[in-house]
Fold this protein.
Amino acid sequence: MIDRAACLLPAQGPITAFVYDNPLCALEDLAFEKAVAVGAKTFGCHPYWTEEQFHRELTRGRILPDDLAAELIDDLGDHADTLLGFLGTRYHLRLAMLEQPLRLAPTRELEWLVTESDALRQFRDEVSPAIRSKLVNRTRQWILAEWQGDRGDAQPDRAREIIDPVLAAFDMTGASHWQDATWTRFVLEAVWSACLVGVRDAAPPLAEVAMPIRHRDMLLEATGDDSDVLVHGMLIRFCAAFCDQGLAAWPLPTRDAGFFHGFSNLYGEGSGGPEPWLRGLRAEFEAHAKRGLTPLESIERSLHDLGVAEEEQEAYLARTLLALRGWAGMIWQMETRGDRVPHPVPRGSLVEFLAVRLVLERLALADIAREAFGWQGSLRELRGFVSERIPKQESLTTEQRAFQVFQLAQLRGWRPEALCQLSRFEWATLIREVEAFSSLERRRIFQRAFERRYRMQALDALAATCRLSCLTPVEEAAPPFQVITCIDDREESFRRHLEEIEPGCETFGTAGFFGVAMYFRGAADAHDMPLCPIVVTPKHYVREHVALTFEGTERVRKQTRHAIGTVTHRLHMGSRTFTGGVLAAVLGSLASIPLVMRVLFPRATAHLRIWFGGFVQPPPVTQLELERTEATPGTEAGHIGYTVPEMATIVERLLRDIGLTGRFARIVFVLGHGSASLNNPHESAYNCGACAGGSGGPNARALAQMANDARVRELLAQHGLVIPDATRFIGGHHDTCNDSVRVDDLERLASTHTPDFIRLRGVVNEARRRNAQERCRRFYSAGLNLTADAAIRHVEGRAEDLSQARPEFKHANALCLVGRRQWSRGLFLDRRAFLQSYDPAEDDERFSVLERILQAVVPVCSGINLQYYFSSVDPVGWGAGNKLSHNIASLVGVMDGAASDLRPGLHRQMIEIHEPMRLLFVIETSPAGIHQIMERNPRIAALVRGQWVQLACIDPAQGGIAIVSDGLFVSHTPERSDLPEACSSRDWYYGCRDNVGFARIMPRASLSTNASGGTP
Amino acid sequence: MTLFQLFGIIVVASPAVLVAVLGVTTAWRWPMSERAIHRWIFSAVLIGMAAAIAVLVLMLITGDREVPVEMGQWVVIPEEEFHFHLKFLFDRLSVPFVILSFLLCGTIGAFTNRYLHREPGYRRFSMCYALFTLGMVVTSLAGTIEVLFFGWELVGLSSALLIAFFHERTAAVRNGQWVWSIYRISDAAFLIAALALHHLTGEGDFDLMMGAGPWPEGVAALTPDQALFVGSLLLIAAMGKSALVPFSGWLPRAMEGPTPSSAVFYGALSVHLGAFLLLRVSPILERSAILSAAVMVVGILTAVTAAASARVQSDIKSSLAYASLTQVGVIVAEIGFGLRVIPLIHIIGHACLRTLQLLRAPSLLRDYHTLENAIGGHLPHKASGWSRWFPQPWQRWAYRSAIERFSLDGWLEAIVVRPFMGVFRWCDRMERQWTDWLAGGQSRESDDISPHEVIVEELKL
C-alpha cells in the first residue's frame, strides 16, 4: 500500500544528475486529459494554464478563434448542434463562454461588485454595439408598453417578482425621456434580478464540498492553525541531516540506525524542550521500545489511534506522504536507486519516515486541538468533532451561479423579457449547461486550441518543405564534411547555421550519447560518471589518461592539485568554525578583491582563473583507454573499455540509425554537448538529456576513435558498410552555454587532412558566433542588434557570471522530427525542435531501426517535454518555484528559503521561453510502421494512445502528412501552402524577442524570384 | 565650508538622494527602467564611496582623527533639555565602517542588477536596498545617539521588508515578521537607553558624552552604576541586532529573501551592527567591569552555540548563517575583553569573506565536485576528532541540541511570546464581553468572515 502511494512521489533523484521525467508518470495509464485532472486534485496543482493566460494568448493572436471553434466541434462531436431552447446550440453557447472571459469571484467580492462597481451600470466592454442597442431598445419598448403605470399588475407573478424590485428602484415617471445610459442601467438591473430569481428557484443542487480526509486539513479550516508547520519544522531538519551527502561538518550520529531508530534515539531521551507539543514525544518512543514495535506496526498503531478506517487508509497515507513530497520522494529515490548517491539510505526508509511522521502528527494534532477547543479526548473522535465546527460550504453559491449567467446574458444578448418567460425547467437546463462547461473544461479546450495553432503551422511548413524537397534531386558528390550532433533542440540552430555557411555540408542528429553507454572518468576526475540515458545501466568503463610524454608533468601537477584541494577544503570548512576567526581577521579583507572582481568583471576574472588553472590542470594531450583485452568489462586493468567487435556493433548501429552509410565526407565531426555555468544548482539539468545530466563530449570522442580503428572498419566492411580510408572521424564538445567548441584528439589527425580540418574549423567558428547571436535575441539584457562578436562575448560573460540567474535559456521544445534532414533542411525551426536523423530506405520491413530509435527518443523527449509542460503550467506547484530563493540542502536538492520541502522540477527562470504544449512527433514512415511499433512497445503505445504526445507521420515516398487522432490516421489539410522565405536566419529573426514562426532560409543566390513575402 | 564638511555632506547625501529619487518615482508610479534604476544606484554608491575615501585621505593628511560634520539643530526644547542635533562624526571607527558599507553595498548593487533582472519585485528590492544603504551610512557616521537610532531603524525596516520579499510565500512573511518582532525588542531597549543617556548626561552627542579624545580613547562621563544601566540596555539592543544568544534564532530565518539581500544582511553588514554599536559606546563599557564581563559572556555563549549549530546544519545558507554568527560572537567577546581595533579589523575581514561565500553559495555543488576531483576521492565525511572522545549519549545530546538550535526560539516563545499573547488575548476577551454587553448581542462583524479566502475555481488549489 505504501509502495503504491510512493509511486505518486516526485521521481527526481539528486540534483547533481538531473533526469527529466514525466511528473505524472504514475498516472501514465490514463489518458492525458483525464490524468491531469486527477493529478490536479491529488497534488493540488494547476492542470493547464489559467484562463487568464490563455485569453492573453487569444488577444495577441497566438490562438485564433478558428482554433477554438475547430477544437470545440471536435470535442463536442455529435452534440455540437444540440438545441437549447432560445439559447441557441450548445456549440454557440460554449464558444461564447470561451471567447470572452467569464469572471468569477468569491461571494463577498460579488456583493461588492454588484453594489459598488460599474457591473450593473455599464455593459461589459466586450459586448458588441449591436447587442447593446438591441437590449436597450427592446427592453424600452417592452417596459413602456407593458409595465408603465398599473399595466404591470397584469403580468405573470414570476415576471413581477423579477421586475417589480427594479421598477421600485427607478423613478418611472419620466421613463419615456430617459437617456440610453439610464436604460442600460435598467436593463442590467433587470437581467441581474432575473438571474438571481431564476437560479434561486431552479438551480439544480450542487455537490457539497467534500470534507478533507486528513485531520490536519480539517483543523486548519476550523482553527487556522496548521499542524504541518510544527511537524515539518522538525521533520525537515531531520530529513536534511539524514539525507546529507557531506554538507554538514558533523554528520548525524544515529544515521546508521535507520530513519526510525535514528530519530527515536536522538529525540527519545533527555528533556522534551520548551515546545509544548513535543512533551509526549519521549513517552511515545518509550512505549514503542517497550512493545518492540517495528515501523510498520507503528504506522498501524498510529492509524488506529487516529481513527482511520481500513478502506480510507490508502488515500490517507498517500495524502500524508504528499504533504512533504519533496523529502519523501528523495528518501524513496535514495533507497530505490542507491547507486546514484555516495551515501544511500537503507531499504524501508520511506516506511520509517512515514512512521515517524505519523507519531509527530498525532502529537501536533493533539496539541492544536487542546489549544483551540480544550480537547482532551482521543484523536479517534477528533475528525467527527471538528467537522461540526467547519461551516458547510457549497462549491458555488447562488450569487456566483447567477453572476455567470448574468455575464453570458450580456454577451449573448438575452433580453430581460425573454429571461422572465423562462420556465423553471428551462432555467435548470441553462444552469446545467453553463456549469457543465466549467473552467477546467474551458481550459482543456484552450489547451487543445493552443496546441492546434502550432501543429497547423508546423505541419504546413513541413508540407511546404516536403514539396520542395521532392523536387530537388540528391547530389551525388560527397560533401566537404559531415557533422553529427545531439538530437537536442538547442543544436537545431547550430546545425542550421553550419548549413547556411557551408551549403555543401551535411548534418545529422541522434541521441547525444552516440550509442556509447559507459562510465567515464576523465584524467582529473575522481569518480566514474555514467554517460548514457537513465534507463540504461552501463556495463563498460572508459578512462582518460594523460599521454605518456607528459607523465612527469602530470605527476607534479596532480600533487599540486591534491595539495590545493586539501587546503581549500580545510579553509572552506574552517571558515565556518572558530578558526575562521583568525582566518577572517587576517585574510578576510583580501576576499574583497575576488568579490569585486567577480561581480564587476566576470569575463576577465574567468580568463585570469583559466590562465592560473592552466598550471595545474592535466596537460592537454590525453588518450582514452578504450580497448579491452579481457573477456568481461569491469574497473580493473585490462577490463576497461570495449572489444573490437563491440566497437564495430556500436559504430554500425549509430551509422545505420542516422542513415549515414554511403557518401562519406573526408571528415566526419561528432559533436557532443554540455553546459557549464556558475552559481547554478541546476547545472546538470542544462547538460545533455541523453547522458543523464552529464556532458556528451567523451562519448563523441570515444565514438570517433572507434570509427577510426582499421579493425573496426574491416568488420563493418564485412557487414556491407564500407567507410573509405580517406574518411576520418573527429570527436568534439559543444558548450551550449558559452558556445565554445572543443576538438579532441587532433594530434592523431593525419597531416593529409589538415586542410580539410582548417576548412571545418572556419565554418564551425562562424557557426558558433552566429549561434550565439541567435541565442542573444532571447536575452533581454543583450541588445537586439548585437554583432556576432559582441554576442559571443556576451554569452561567455553569462557563463562566468556569479550573478546570472539565466546562464542560458533551456528547452523551448515543441516538435520532434524523426526522418531525413531533407525534410527540415533550410527550415527555420527556432530552436524548438528535436531532430533525429533516420533514413527509411535503410530500414527493413519490420522497421527495426525505427523501433530502436523510437524506444529511446519517445520516452526521453516526451519526458523532457512533459517536465517542461508541468513546470511551466504551474511553476510553484509542479516546478521548483523561483530560483532566487533556492538554498542547497544536503547536496541532493534545493529548498525554498530557510527551510522548506525539497523542490523538484524546474525553476521559473528555466521555463520562461517555453510554451506548454505536448510534444508533436513527426516521423518519416508509413502508418503501418507506427502501428507495428506500438504493438511491440506498450510504453510508446500508452504515450501515443493516451495523447501524452501528438503524433504525425510523413509518407517517405509522396511526402503527404497524416496525424493520429483518436487512434486513427487523418490526413493533414494545409491551411496555407506558401512559406515565408528569408536570405538568412538573422534576416528572419532580427528584432524579435518572442517565438518566431517558420520560414524557409534560402541563401541569397538561390532565393527564388517569385518569393512570396520574404520579410518577417 | 571646509573640504571636510563638503565631502562629509556628500557621503551622507548621496544615499539620501537615491532614496528620494527611487521613493518619489515609486510613489508617483512613474515608470523607471531597470537600467535607469541601476544607473542611479551605481552612481549614488560610487559618489558616496569616493567622498568617504576623500575624507579618509584628508584625515590622513591633516592628522585630524575626529571630524564632526554639523547639519544643524532640528528640534530644540530648552525646558526639557532636549535637542535633535543632526550631526555626523568621522573618526577611526566610522570611516572604515562606512567605506566597508559602500564597498559591499556597491558590489551587491551590481550583483542584484543581473540577479534580479526581470523579477517582478525589482523596483521594490531597489527601494529597500536604497533604504538599507542610507541606514547603514547614517548608523556608521552618526554623531549623536538619536541619529544613530534613526539609521538603526532604517536598517531594521528594510531588512524585515527584504526578508519578506517573496510575500506570496507564507514562510517568508512569517519569518520576516519574526525578525521584525525581535528588532522591536532591541529597538525598545535602544530607545530607553537613549532617553536615559539624555537624562543622565544632558547630551546625546558621542563626542561630548564620551569626553575628551577621539575614539577609542574617550572616557564616558558616567558613574559605573549609570554605565551599567545604560550599557545593559544598549547590550540588549546589540543582542537583538546581532542575533546574539538568546535571539540567535532569527538569523537563519532571515534567509528567505533573494541571495544578495541575505549576503548583505546576515552575512556582512547588519549582523555586525550590534558589535558596531558596542564599539561606538565602548567608553561606557569601560566604566563598568560587570558590563564588560556580561558582553564577554554573551559573546562567548553565542560563539559556542553558533559554532555547534554551524557544524550540523545540512543546508548551505543556514550553515553560513551560523558560521557568521560564530564570528560575530567572537567579535563581541573581543569587545568585552577590552579590545578595540582588533574587533574592527575582524569585522571588516569577516564581512568581505562572508559576502563572497554567500554569493557563491549556489555554486556549492560545482565547488564540491571540483574539490573531489582535486583530492581524488570523496570528501572526508566524518565527525571530527574531538567529538569522538565523548560517550555516545553525550554526542547525541549535543547533536540534538545543535540541530534544534538549542531551542532558543522555543524558549523565547514559551517565556516571552505566550505570556505576552495571553495578556492581550485576555484583554480582547474582556473587551468583547464589554462591547457585546453594550451592543446587546454580537458586536463584531468581522467574526463571521473566515480568515481563508474561498477559492473560486472548481479546483481548490
